[in-house]
């Protein structure tokens, strides 16, 4: 399950992607349109800015904008940034691997084998789905 913070981050990024390349949106606009608490959104956007995904500008024409094209920002990238590893078991994590305390032998662990398949499938979808893809899915659904 993804965190509420990750869900808000994705909704904010989709909102920025919808605005178009080179267009900025004010925090208040995003907060209102996406029903995200403004203070929480400020923290999320700051984290996304530090990661080089968004940029902020001050002034009358200020706000936040995407630094990368929507096609270059994947759901997997954002989820790892906000929530950390995409793995239901610590022994399946790429970036935070840890042997399970109660495991005798990973190669013989039936539970690990099943969740490894789930994890690989999940990662494949998340790492191959961009913000642009999700916008196109919205267009198809309408």
From TrEMBL:
Matching InterPro entries: TR_Rrf2-type_CS, Tscrpt_reg_Rrf2, WH-like_DNA-bd_sf, WH_DNA-bd_sf
Molecular function (Gene Ontology), one example: DNA-binding transcription factor activity
Family annotation (PROSITE patterns): HTH_RRF2_1 (PS01332), HTH_RRF2_2 (PS51197)
Cellular component terms per the entry's GO annotation: cytosol
Superkingdom to which the source organism belongs: Bacteria
SUPFAM superfamilies hit by this protein: Winged helix' DNA-binding domain (SSF46785)
Keywords: DNA-binding
PANTHER family for this protein: HTH-TYPE TRANSCRIPTIONAL REGULATOR ISCR, WINGED HELIX-TURN-HELIX TRANSCRIPTIONAL REGULATOR, RRF2 FAMILY
UniProt protein name: Rrf2 family protein
